[in-house]
């Protein structure tokens, strides 16, 4: 059985209110790595619906914060 992850994530969050979405994001960040693809879908929705100026700010924030921290080991 093939599952479309994007559609599954959007289906699961379709009726969530703002507090539920915030809790989902926070739980996903703190939780198991298996939840990370869902965050990717959420980021895609944000990205697709943001003006270029906000996209530029997101990229700048990512670059600055990733560069400011030590490079992690993928085996940790």
From TrEMBL:
Q: What is its main location?
A: other
Q: Which HAMAP family match?
A: SspI
Oxidoreductase as UniProt keyword: no
Pfam families listed in its UniProt record? SSPI (PF14098)
Localization in the cell: Spore core
For biological process, the GO terms are: asexual sporulation; sporulation resulting in formation of a cellular spore
- What gene codes for this chain? sspI
Q: Does the keyword Transferase apply?
A: no
Q: Organism source for this protein?
A: Paenactinomyces guangxiensis
Recount the UniProt induction comment for this entry.
Expressed only in the forespore compartment of sporulating cells.
Q: Which UniProt keywords apply?
A: Sporulation
Q: What's the protein called, per UniProt? A: Small, acid-soluble spore protein I
Lineage summary: Bacteria, Bacillati, Bacillota, Bacilli, Bacillales
> Which InterPro entries has this protein been placed in?
SspI
Q: Which family does it belong to?
A: Belongs to the SspI family.
């Amino acid at each position: 059985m093939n599952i479309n992850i994007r559609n599954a994530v959007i289906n699961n969050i379709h009726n969530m209110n703002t507090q539920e979405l915030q809790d989902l994001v926070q739980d996903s960040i703190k939780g198991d790595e298996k939840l990370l693809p869902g965050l990717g879908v959420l980021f895609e929705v944000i990205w697709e619906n943001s003006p270029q100026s906000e996209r530029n700010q997101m990229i700048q924030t990512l670059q600055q914060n990733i560069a400011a921290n030590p490079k992690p080991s993928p085996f940790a």
